[in-house]
Amino acid sequence: MGDVAATIRVMPESVETDLNELKSKLEAVIPEGAKFFGSRIEPVAFGLKALVMVIMVGDIEGGTEQVESAFAAVPGVESVQVTEVGRPV
Description:
- The protein contains 2 helices and 4 strands, in the order E-H-E-E-H-E.
- 20% of the residues lie in helices and 47% in strands.
- By secondary structure, it is α+β, with helices and mostly antiparallel strands.
- It has a 4-stranded antiparallel β-sheet with strand order 2-3-1-4, with helices on one face.
- It has helices at residues 19-28, 65-72; strands at 3-12, 35-45, 48-58, 77-86.
- The protein has a domain at 1-17 and 38-58.
- The mean pLDDT is 90.
């Protein structure tokens, strides 16, 4: 049993959403046992940008589900998608 790095793509509700503020809100709701590892802003289309966050979670059953649920409940979040899960190098 160990940790895995989950890359999570968070889509904001609109192009007007302040992604730095959204990132702060997401960091505040990370469940116990998970750790924020890094983030980047990724252009999508027509001025819309996604916030891509890397979170370290335990590789137990349902490892990313708590983080996904916490992120989805944050005001300003349109959708949450895990795009990659792997062991840190």
